[in-house]
């Protein structure tokens, strides 16, 4: 007698990839899950980055998953499938998923530059993308300035730039070889612009700190990096809009960069739920009334969680390939479902995990228990950009009411930094000592 | 200058049909929305059925929307597209959507009999389906026994049956021409079976009561019907499983019959939200802090609501055409996402509507205000079968824990009725007097 | 054998009065509960005011419950005990409780004028209070202007005033003999002031409309009243602060006027819960898992609901007698717990009622079912002043952050009305025709 | 100029003690708060017990706070005031509050034995209570058996007992000098009984493990203790009911032992809220819309949290002194409000803390941030006995529906242990090696 394997809920809900590239990436990733799973607790406890795992990813070309096939990558280009892959990794370890997402995300955004950018941007992007495929590059991004510094590009007088400042919350920093960060020019000669310089690990002014000690996501290597007059050639800077330009076109790239991170929290919730149901099913006594109710409720919230993230990803994948639209409108249409989904993910996923702790009972309250890790990791979702909950309310309500405002959070930060900057920014040499 | 219309979030989320038939049905329904909208308040107030609207539906072939094209219908066969159509109607009036859903649902389930049933079932189904197209039939279903009676088929001694009992909550009853109800045989000769006789309006033993007076859904004509020894030819009875058979295959048909009703509550929530945002946007003063927060929160819940229903419908449409699976497993795989989605719909939709009342303020608390109607109508979702919340917890938790049980709620009812029936069942003549 | 009656949770939680006057009032009210209960459904259905009940209250001195004993009243002066009494009535009928609360509230606020006001105010208050005891007065308050009019006092040239405007949401209006309303002077001669004229039923310019048709609270007679140049002697006007004065002392009176209304929603939730538990306990089968869970959860929310309202009332009763404090600080200290409690009541009470509908099932969805009435009535809590949810967020957050603002909602309204008034206000003769 | 200090919401809500003893204890504890606060982060990080703090408590008589004055203690006997004291400590450090609560709780329960027990129990209680006052005793309780062992008393053949087994989750274990544990007799000669032996630290068979490593409450020293044939004189055993006796009288003692622990989670939520509001108030920009809304909402939940715990404590203090009631009924009447309050505390407190993280932003997600500690500590509330959420639903729903069952969770455990015990229990020597 042969048992026909049960089909899991298919098609939608982030259960399966929808492209061949998605299947290929997921299949390969599945091979790493035992390794990831087996070292997760130890890295969580010690707060260390899983360098071994990432070395393997590098050597085996995994970091080129989202690099276009023309450049030797695996050509994964659907956000939906990126999310399915990240979800699988997150079920084993959320920190690894977060760090890996950064690579997948860089492949996508640099791939966009390579396809649609000007000649300089295309050359820079191609260089980085080929290096990712070859295993020579781990490209990290640095978005958020440390409160003590405004990260600024100053002309070096001979056509290049000097970069100073400090970025915080740079995931995978310990293994990063290139850092694509957002900065602003200092306004000499022309109004200040947003810009994305690429800083290589061997830049003499760069320091990668070893200062990550999170409540959760402890193995994600989410460190600070400090720039002390880093020389940056002009060819390594992607120029963006002037500070204060209201350009909602930027929302498209921000959505693409970040939306698949929702899958991390879906994965954590799914892992917690599976583990919990299995634990209760093993008990000799039948489940009590409240256990039945919580399992049904949490299962339904998990379903909604998957469905909501899945639907946003599907929609955004379509918009992502539609370049006929007005760029600002396209940016807003991508950001809206992303933010709606993000608000729900950050409400539903933690509630599922918390109910799982309730169901499993006191054992889950020990530091090393997988559910205790889920409880800490899942809370990270609320702090991911764009946007925080508070900023998302401003964005979504202004969209609902038709109120015009600057929706680019990087531009917001840049403006705020300029107005407060002189008071709080400090010299880079001081920044290192924290 | 031409304005490019903004694309609403497309593809997923029940914003647009996915088949040509879905588009055709939706386009035609849109033509009726002004009529539906303009009479909704009055029918709600008086608790009357919108007979005029349904006469128009009948005459113009609208009740054949889900009848196969081979039989002259419009051939709408995707539950997703049924839901998109119902959602549009529900935004105008939830009661009308509920009554119309019953027709669309009958088209689908009778279409299934016509394609997959035995010769007798196929003949019966074809007759009804052609009549729906011709505008000669409004086919209602009656599921739930009145507490006072077990609806029972007794052999009439000459190969036919006599039907007695009482059904409650039969929507569109006032205009129903045929009633497909679930009953059980009385066990004479062979063990009692579940069976679905079709009772025509002119059956001498049939009484359609005028007893609907709901908290909400007041225009849905959700009345009781009483059977007093109705003669039913054998050819008008669809035979099902013996009472007590555990046949999860039945869950497939139950899912198909009911899942698109979720769109009613999605539509109510969407209508409430749209109306509220428009009202606040008209106010001269900018929205206060809590109004911004509630609008963003409720909008995100609305997004999750659409996404969750949408994902379940997409999944179930695929399973619905996959006849290669084990029928029991297929039934469970269809019922699970339906129930997960239903639990979330019944949590999210009322919360959105309630927040809308908060945002609009005291004006919404008058009986005739559209939001007051939404507040009453949206609460109906929790009472739709299958399952109620309490039964859904039993189903979903047993599925999660791998506990075997009878998942067919009609079978449950039949068993319970048999054990309690003799004590409470009364003669039909008495039933009429209530 | 004698059964010792079980002590219900005593002392705190609004289970029992704490003063002898509270016991006396509650004991007398209990005698009316059968009458109130027996007519509630019919008045709800028809939207009629229980005039018979209030005639009885009048004749038997019940409207003097909170009038000081020195003036012949029953001397109930603790808000806690007022709430216990109102809660008992609300369990029978929320509308009656709302209308009765208005009388109890007037007794308290007029009692304050009588004790602490100037000579004119004391004389006016005494007159009204003695009439309440004698059964000659039913004193209603009118707070909220109809959107079409700013209720304004204009000097009549001979020392008195002429009052024009329209008030909406005046509970017990059908039986009101005196209306204490808030208005503003027109600014002739001196800056506009807030003022509270008392208008008697026989005033030639007064019209009491019969226009209440609420979603819930349908028997509360919450009508509009229109003033068309009503002559008001100076002695019948209580003068307040100038419009725009930031005087948080007014918050004390607003708290005293309104906080005991929280007990209405506690009562509705308690009634729904009791009815539901009794219905489930009568069923032959044991409660299913989700029923057990919901009953325990809803019971706990009910406990928190009672505790939260109870604690706020206890605190405010103490502050109410402490006249040594700075009046503004006292106002804020009274309003804060009131608003905290109000926010929770309006969250917890509707959720309990909704869970009760779920537990009882489809029967609860008929218009006349007691739970359907609870579902409609309980939603009124969110619309009671002060404050609505949106305004409460402004008040509570500014209190938390130490942000100075005008907390008097009547003053807010007056200022807004002045700025928008000329555009929207209409002549009273037109107002009548709506 | 002198500023009149603002009165915090007084009287109810756990803001102030209600007895002189309560004031005395709180005043003395306040002196220790700077010490507790200053070492909390370090003990949390390392998972070490604050032995220094407890040495000070011991030396300065603080552990006699709840010991009757007749025995030299401070005579604190109101649970309300115990909670106020514990709340203050928990605002500084939840772990210390948990460990200190255990002492206060022992003083209360041993005080009850001293007043109401038989001669042997009274003598034993007096000895321990006097030692607590003198600083010679830190009395811990051990309730929950390690899953591997049933803690059992076997007659030693000469009138005493031998104790074997293992207890888990014994807070303050590292400094415990006496352990009052619950065990059962082995059934030799007479049916097995529940019993509470007192084991002294120097008992040759006792091992206090150093195995606490919690998700939160990391400084509470919540270790396992192992008994390997510990000799226990008969005079050191408090005999309870036979295993399986349904004696709800035991619920009274269980309530008294545990209810004041609710104040720990109230304190954590209050600390998180205060810290958050202060952080936001310091920011140069005004709070955004969602920040205002969350602060008002969370503040209201905090109010309800305090009110609910406060009301339960007030009620239970009254019942605690009422020995005229039927003991079983009294036990149930004490346990019901405790459990209602516990369910709400475990829902409200974590939600407040989580909102505080949202408001403060990414900084709160670092391991050492006070809010990160709050987030971990506050989750402990769900695991405290009696009861867990799942068991509380069984208790409260059976109380609501009038279903008779054994409500003594210790008895439950004993019965389950007996039925499963032989399969899983292991020899104590093996237990040590884990």
Automatic annotation (TrEMBL), chains A, B, C, D:
A Gene Ontology term for the protein's cellular component: cytoplasm
GO molecular function: acyl-CoA dehydrogenase activity; flavin adenine dinucleotide binding; monooxygenase activity
Cross-referenced Pfam families: Acyl-CoA_dh_1, Acyl-CoA_dh_M, Acyl-CoA_dh_N
Ranges of residues in domain Acyl-CoA dehydrogenase/oxidase N-terminal: 37-104
The protein's required cofactors: FAD
SUPFAM superfamilies linked: Acyl-CoA dehydrogenase C-terminal domain-like, Acyl-CoA dehydrogenase NM domain-like
Stretches assigned to the Acyl-CoA oxidase/dehydrogenase middle domain: 151-230
The entry's keywords: FAD, Flavoprotein, Oxidoreductase
Domain Acyl-CoA dehydrogenase/oxidase C-terminal: 259-381
CDD domains in alphabetical order: ACAD
Family of this protein: Belongs to the acyl-CoA dehydrogenase family.
Protein's UniProt name: Putative flavoprotein
Species: Micromonospora chalcea
Lineage summary: Bacteria, Bacillati, Actinomycetota, Actinomycetes, Micromonosporales
């Amino acid at each position: 007698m042969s048992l026909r394997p049960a089909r899991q809920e298919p098609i939608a809900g982030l259960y399966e990839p929808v492209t061949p590239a998605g299947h290929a990436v997921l299949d390969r990733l599945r091979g790493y899950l035992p390794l990831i799973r087996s070292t997760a607790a130890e890295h969580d406890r010690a707060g260390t980055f899983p360098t071994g795992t990432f070395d393997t990813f590098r050597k085996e070309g995994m970091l080129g998953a989202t690099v276009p096939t023309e450049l030797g990558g695996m050509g994964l280009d659907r956000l939906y499938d990126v999310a399915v892959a990240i979800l699988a990794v997150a079920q084993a370890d959320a920190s690894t998923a977060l760090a890996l997402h950064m690579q997948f995300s860089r492949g996508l955004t640099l791939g966009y530059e390579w396809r649609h950018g000007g000649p300089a941007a295309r050359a820079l992007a191609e260089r980085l993308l080929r290096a990712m495929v070859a295993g020579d590059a781990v490209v990290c991004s640095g978005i958020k300035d440390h409160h003590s510094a405004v990260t600024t590009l100053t002309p070096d007088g001979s056509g290049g730039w000097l970069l100073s400042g400090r970025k915080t919350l740079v995931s995978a920093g310990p293994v990063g070889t290139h850092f694509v960060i957002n900065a602003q020019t200092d306004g000499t000669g022309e109004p200040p612009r947003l810009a994305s310089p690429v800083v290589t690990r061997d830049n003499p002014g760069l320091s990668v700190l070893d200062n990550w000690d999170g409540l959760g996501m402890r193995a994600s290597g989410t460190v600070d990096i400090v720039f002390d007059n880093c020389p940056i050639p002009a060819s390594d800077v992607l120029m963006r809009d002037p500070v204060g330009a209201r350009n909602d076109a930027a929302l498209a790239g921000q959505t693409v960069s970040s939306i698949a991170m929702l899958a991390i929290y879906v994965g954590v919730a799914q892992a917690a739920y599976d583990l919990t149901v299995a634990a209760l099913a093993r008990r000799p006594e039948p489940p009590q009334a409240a256990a039945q109710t919580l399992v049904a409720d949490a299962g339904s919230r998990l379903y909604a969680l998957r469905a909501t993230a899945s639907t946003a990803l599907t929609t955004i994948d379509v918009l992502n390939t539609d370049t006929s639209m007005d760029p600002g409108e396209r940016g807003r249409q991508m950001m809206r479902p992303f933010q709606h989904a993000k608000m729900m993910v950050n409400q539903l996923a933690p509630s599922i995990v918390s109910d799982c702790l309730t169901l499993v009972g006191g054992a889950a309250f020990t530091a090393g228990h997988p559910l205790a890790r889920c409880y800490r990791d899942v809370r990270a979702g609320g702090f991911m950009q764009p946007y925080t909950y508070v900023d998302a309310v401003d964005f979504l309500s202004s969209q609902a009411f038709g109120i015009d405002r600057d929706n680019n959070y990087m531009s917001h930060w840049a403006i705020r930094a300029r107005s407060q900057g002189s008071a709080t920014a400090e010299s880079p040499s001081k920044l290192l000592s924290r």
